[in-house]
C-alpha cells in the first residue's frame, strides 16, 4: 500500500503533466490561430481623437502589423534570422512609416515573419517557422513579406506593411488571395527599415478591402485631394500572359469584361512588351552583349538585370556582417548570395541606364491615365517543399513578371480574382511612376466588377474554340494596327475585316477599319463602319470623330457638327473635336 506522501506526489506529478499537456495544447492552438504569421506581439496605440468639429483620424479603428524589418522603438528588428537579432541592438526610434500610421489612428499589434534576410520570394523560414497559407494550407505563402500577407488573409489585422524588392509584397498577395500595393520607388520613406537592395526596395502594404488599401495609401503617400479620373487606356501585355501556367482567359477575360462594362471597349489595347522594350530601352542590348544572352526576350532580360542589382546591392549592404558573423543560411539563399558576381563600373552604369529608360518607356506608354495589365505570378502557389520552388522556370517566370515595376520604379497593385484549382489567382495593374493615387482610385472603382466577372468566368465553361476566336481576332487587329502605322491602308482593312469576321460585336474593330477607309478616301464605307461601332459602343469617342470627318467630306455638315459636338460631350478636353465643330459652325451656320 502506497504511503500518503507517495500518493500526494503522484497527484502532484499528475497535475504537473496535465498542466504541461494543457500548455502544449494551448501553444499549438495559439500557433494555429495566428497561422505562424507573428514573430512577436506588441501594441502601439494611436493618439486621442481630436475634438469636434475636427475630423477623426483617417485610420481610426484599424489594426495593422509590420514585417520584422521595420524598426520599432525598444524592439530588435530580426531580419528573418536569429543571428541578426542576436548581433543587433533594439531600435532607439520607430520607423517614420510606422509612426505615421499610428498617428493616423491605426493600432500596431505585432511584427511578422519574413524570409531569411528578406531575400526570397517563397515565404519559407526554417528559423521562425514557415507561416501557413490561410487560403491553401499545403501551399507556400510567397515572400519575402510572408507573415504580413498571412496576417491580413487570416483576418488577424486590417492591413499590414512589408517590403517589396523583387516581388516581396506582390507575390505573397497573389499567393494568399489579398490586395498588395507596391508604390512608386521613393514615394514612401525607407528610414528605419533594414535595406535589401536600395534601388529596388519599396515599402508595400496588404489589405483585404480596396477602401482600406486606398486609405492607407493616402496616409503614407500624403496625397492631396484631386478629382478621380477613369482610365483612358488599359493595355494587356500579351507576351506576359503567355507565361501563365493556368488558362489565360481565367485572368485576362475577367479584366476585359470588367473594362468593357465600366469604361467601354475603346479603352482596351494589347501590347507585346518584349517588342516595345526592344525599341524603347536601347541599353538592354548592351546588357545582352555583356551577358551573352542574345536569344532571351527583353522582359526575361529585365529579370536578370533586377537580380544582378539585387545581389550587388545586398552584398554592398551586408557582406561585412555575413563574413564576420558567418550565419547559418538556407542553402537556396546561401547559393544566391555567394553566387554574387562582381560588377564593374560600366556594367553598373548600364543597369542604371536600363532603369532610367524603363521608367521613361512605361511613362510614355501609359501617360497619366493608362494602366498596364500583367499576371502577378505565372504559377499557382507551389506546394510546400515541392520541386517547383527550386525549378528554374518558376524562378525565371516569377522574376520576369516582378521585374517590370521593380526596374522601372512604377507602382503596381495585386488584385485577387478568386481561385483556380483550389488556389488563389490574381492579376496586376501597373501605373506610371507617380501615378499612385490614380492606381489606388482605379482599383477601388474596378474591384467589385472584377470580383463579379471572376465569379462569372469561374462558373462558366467557355469552349476552347470561343476563346481562340477572341484571341485570333485580337491578333488580327494588332496586325491591322501595324499595317496602319506603316501606311498600308488596304492591308490594314483586310486585317480589320478578318477580326470582324471572327468577332462581329467589337466596336474597336469597326472604328479602326473606318480610319483606314478614311485614309483611302472611302468616306461612305468609313461612315457605315463608324455607325456600326457607335451602335455597339455609344461612348466610342474615336468613332464619333471619324464619322464626323467622313460626313464632312461627304457634305453632311450639320450631321458632322453633331458628331464632333457629341465627341466633345464624352471627352470635354478633346481639342480635335472642339476645333472641328467650331470650324464647321463658322463656315456653314
Overview of this protein structure:
This protein is an alpha/beta fold. It is 53% helix and 11% strand. The protein contains 22 helices and eleven strands. An eleven-stranded mixed β-sheet has the order 1-3-2-4-6-5-10-11-9-7-8, with helices on both faces. Helix 16 runs antiparallel to helix 17 (489-502) and helix 18 (507-520) runs antiparallel to helix 19 (523-536). The longest helix is centred in the N-terminal third of the chain and has 31 residues, at 4-34. The model is unreliable at 4-31 (pLDDT under 50). Keywords: Membrane, TPR repeat, Transmembrane, Transmembrane helix. Residues 56-217 form the Amidase domain. InterPro entries: Amidase_dom (IPR023631), AS_sf (IPR036928), TPR-like_helical_dom_sf (IPR011990), TPR_rpt (IPR019734).
Number of helices: 22
Rg from alpha-carbon coordinates: 28 Å
Termini separation: 121 Å
State the major sheet.
Answer: 11 strands, mixed
Order of strands in the sheet with most strands? 1-3-2-4-6-5-10-11-9-7-8
Q: Percent of residues in beta strands?
A: 5-15%
How much helix, percentage-wise, in residues? 40-55%
TPR repeats: 541-574
Pfam families: Amidase
Transmembrane segments: 6-24
Protein name: Amidase domain-containing protein
Notable characteristics:
globular; eleven-stranded mixed beta sheet; transmembrane; 589 residues; alpha/beta
What topology does this entry show?
Blueprint: H1 4-34, E1 38-44, E2 63-67, H2 82-86, H3 96-103, E3 107-112, H4 146-153, E4 159-164, H5 170-176, E5 179-182, E6 202-207, H6 210-221, E7 233-237, H7 238-241, H8 249-263, E8 268-271, H9 273-280, H10 283-291, H11 298-325, H12 331-338, H13 345-366, E9 370-374, H14 392-408, E10 411-420, E11 423-431, H15 436-459, H16 464-485, H17 489-502, H18 507-520, H19 523-536, H20 541-554, H21 557-570, H22 575-588
Parallel strand pairs: 2-3, 2-4, 7-8, 7-9
Antiparallel strand pairs: 1-3, 4-6, 5-6, 5-10, 9-11, 10-11
InterPro entries: Amidase_dom, AS_sf, TPR-like_helical_dom_sf, TPR_rpt
Organism: Dipteronia sinensis
Domain Amidase: 56-217
Amino acid at each position: 500500500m502506497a504511503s500518503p506522501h507517495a500518493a500526494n506526489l503522484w497527484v502532484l506529478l499528475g497535475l504537473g503533466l496535465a498542466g504541461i499537456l494543457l500548455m502544449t495544447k494551448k501553444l499549438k492552438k495559439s500557433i494555429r490561430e495566428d497561422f505562424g504569421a507573428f514573430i512577436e506581439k506588441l501594441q502601439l496605440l494611436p493618439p486621442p481623437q481630436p475634438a469636434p468639429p475636427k475630423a477623426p483620424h483617417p485610420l481610426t479603428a484599424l489594426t495593422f502589423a509590420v514585417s520584422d524589418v521595420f524598426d520599432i522603438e525598444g524592439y530588435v528588428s530580426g531580419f528573418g534570422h536569429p543571428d541578426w537579432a542576436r548581433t543587433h541592438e533594439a531600435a532607439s526610434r520607430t520607423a517614420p512609416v510606422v509612426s505615421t500610421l499610428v498617428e493616423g489612428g491605426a493600432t500596431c499589434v505585432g511584427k511578422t515573419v519574413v524570409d531569411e534576410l528578406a531575400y526570397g520570394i517563397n515565404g519559407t523560414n526554417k528559423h521562425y517557422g514557415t507561416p501557413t497559407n490561410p487560403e491553401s494550407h499545403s501551399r507556400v505563402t510567397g515572400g519575402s513579406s510572408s507573415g504580413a500577407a498571412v496576417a491580413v488573409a487570416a483576418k488577424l489585422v486590417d492591413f499590414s506593411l512589408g517590403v517589396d524588392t523583387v516581388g516581396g509584397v506582390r507575390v505573397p498577395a497573389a499567393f494568399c488571395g489579398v490586395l498588395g500595393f507596391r508604390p512608386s520607388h521613393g514615394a514612401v520613406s525607407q528610414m528605419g527599415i533594414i535595406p535589401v537592395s536600395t534601388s529596388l526596395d519599396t515599402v508595400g502594404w496588404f489589405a483585404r478591402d480596396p477602401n482600406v488599401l486606398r486609405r492607407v495609401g493616402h496616409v503614407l503617400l500624403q496625397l492631396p485631394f484631386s478629382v478621380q479620373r477613369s482610365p483612358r487606356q488599359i493595355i494587356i501585355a500579351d507576351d506576359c500572359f503567355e507565361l501563365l501556367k493556368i488558362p489565360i482567359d481565367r485572368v485576362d477575360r475577367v479584366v476585359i469584361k470588367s473594362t468593357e462594362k465600366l469604361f467601354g471597349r475603346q479603352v482596351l489595347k494589347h501590347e507585346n512588351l518584349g517588342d516595345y522594350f526592344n525599341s524603347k530601352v536601347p541599353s538592354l542590348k548592351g546588357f545582352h552583349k555583356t551577358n551573352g544572352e542574345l536569344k532571351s526576350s527583353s522582359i526575361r532580360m529585365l529579370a536578370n538585370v533586377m537580380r544582378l542589382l539585387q545581389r550587388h546591392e545586398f552584398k554592398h549592404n551586408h557582406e561585412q556582417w555575413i563574413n564576420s558573423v558567418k550565419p547559418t543560411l538556407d542553402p537556396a539563399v546561401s547559393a544566391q548570395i555567394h553566387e554574387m558576381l562582381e560588377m564593374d563600373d560600366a556594367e553598373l552604369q548600364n543597369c542604371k541606364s536600363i532603369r532610367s529608360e524603363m521608367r521613361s518607356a512605361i511613362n510614355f506608354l501609359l501617360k497619366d491615365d493608362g494602366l498596364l495589365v500583367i499576371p502577378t505570378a505565372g504559377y499557382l502557389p507551389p506546394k510546400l517543399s515541392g520541386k517547383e520552388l527550386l525549378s528554374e522556370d518558376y524562378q525565371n517566370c516569377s522574376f520576369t513578371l516582378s521585374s517590370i515595376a521593380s526596374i522601372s520604379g512604377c507602382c503596381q497593385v495585386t488584385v485577387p480574382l478568386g481561385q483556380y484549382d483550389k488556389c488563389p489567382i490574381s492579376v496586376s495593374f501597373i501605373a506610371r511612376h507617380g501615378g499612385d493615387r490614380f492606381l489606388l482610385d482605379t482599383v477601388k472603382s474596378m474591384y467589385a466588377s472584377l470580383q463579379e466577372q471572376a465569379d462569372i468566368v469561374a462558373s462558366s465553361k467557355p469552349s476552347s474554340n470561343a476563346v481562340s476566336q477572341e484571341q485570333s481576332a485580337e491578333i488580327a487587329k494588332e496586325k491591322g494596327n501595324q499595317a496602319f502605322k506603316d501606311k498600308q491602308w488596304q492591308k490594314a482593312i483586310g486585317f480589320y475585316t478578318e477580326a470582324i469576321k471572327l468577332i462581329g460585336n467589337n466596336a474597336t474593330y469597326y472604328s479602326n477599319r473606318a480610319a483606314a477607309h478614311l485614309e483611302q478616301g472611302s468616306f461612305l464605307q468609313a461612315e457605315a463602319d463608324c455607325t456600326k461601332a457607335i451602335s455597339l459602343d455609344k461612348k466610342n469617342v474615336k468613332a464619333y470623330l471619324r464619322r464626323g470627318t467622313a460626313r464632312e467630306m461627304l457634305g453632311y455638315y450639320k450631321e458632322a457638327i453633331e458628331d464632333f459636338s457629341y465627341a466633345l460631350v464624352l471627352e470635354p478636353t478633346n481639342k480635335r473635336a472642339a476645333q472641328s465643330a467650331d470650324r464647321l459652325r463658322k463656315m456653314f451656320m
